[in-house]
Amino acid sequence: MYTLFHHPFCPLSRFVRLALGEHGLDLRLVEERPWERRTAFLSLNPAGTTPVLIADATPAIPGAGIIAEYLDETHGAAMGDRRLLPSSMDDRIEVRRLMAWFNEKFFEEASGPLVTERIYKRFMSEEDGGGPPSMDVIRAATANVRYHLAYIGWLARTRNYLAGDLITYADLAAAAHLSAIDYLGDVPWSEDEAAKAWYQRVKSRPSFRPLLSEWLAGVPASRTYVDLDF
Amino acid sequence: MYTLFHHPFCPLSRFVRLALGEHGLDLRLVEERPWERRTAFLSLNPAGTTPVLIADATPAIPGAGIIAEYLDETHGAAMGDRRLLPSSMDDRIEVRRLMAWFNEKFFEEASGPLVTERIYKRFMSEEDGGGPPSMDVIRAATANVRYHLAYIGWLARTRNYLAGDLITYADLAAAAHLSAIDYLGDVPWSEDEAAKAWYQRVKSRPSFRPLLSEWLAGVPASRTYVDLDF
After folding, report:
1. What is the number of CB-based contacts under 8 A between chain A and chain B?
2. What ipTM was predicted for this assembly?
3. Of A82, A99, A118, which closes a domain?
4. CB contact under 8 A, B90 and A66
5. Which candidate, A17, A21, A22, A164, places its Cα nearest to that of A79?
6. How confident is the model at residue A226 (pLDDT cuts 50, 70, 90)?
């Protein structure tokens, strides 16, 4: 049994939930508000960020990338051809490149600022930086979503899944970040049919269902959030 | 033979040089100015960032973390007890945690802004963001160096090397970032004797020598940069 310290709209935590789901692993969720900098949480992860995975008989595992490597090393080989970090070196490089692209670059440029401004700030105290969202930050992040969506569309037109023929961590990372901001209505799906068709396929996987059942009091989900055929 | 697209003062590129050196691998260096966004470089790494490693018979390998995983998968087992990403799961988690701490958090909060403001901006055109350094950015980054140095000191007092008994990627990452900003005189060594003693040990390794021979026209190195017994 695994325990995940997460926030329901943290895109990196969503990636880990998808990764555990695809591995068929059960999960207990503990909601963390990282901006509160809880002492017990900081002792699990001195960086103070979600997600943190607790597994039996290992120290706490902090961060989406490190958790992905851990899951691959403990459960990857048993996945056979469905391994999310495939065995061939070329595939490993490409999957890791795209996983970092979404978990680092997309998070920094788009999903991180959007979730912080539109969701986290509602719950933060004034000292923690709470308050009304910065429209400048939202505008810049929304513009960045468009070029990332075009990149996803380009990948989806040249390949079956983002990193090749089969679904990998690359798809889970991209879809996790998109799902968090799709809730907010921040993904202009009509701009890229190939990206939309790829997302529909990933979204219809059983591992995705728990994410779609996350709703936030006071912030209604966008029209496209739950609909599998949006 | 490996080829590394790097900048001599890019802290992440320095980490990769140390990692290759510790593995005993030869390296050809190609200096890249990532802010110029050279088309041929973007085709190697669409993210446009250094470092990028070119190895025989694989696609280009972008980013310090992905290169570290690649080197471990291709050369790690042959290192035996000196493996830089040790075999036990607990050690792998801790080494990856600290490697990410320095290559992501320290880079974002301290070494990245300092190198950009004090070095890269000298070479950038005005359109690329060149010009005089922002003293506000430098002040904030310098303050961050101090808390990171205290964290390194705390680790060095509790352990022989940062992640445990032996040298690992964690030490190489921390030392690589420190070396880039030590050139600029931005490390207050006198504030932490344990951190300083640990750095002296890492700095005296043969893999470190090529870094210390990097000098920048017009920017003199600090008093402590080359001195092994500073």
Report:
1. 59
2. 0.96
3. A82
4. no
5. A22
6. confident
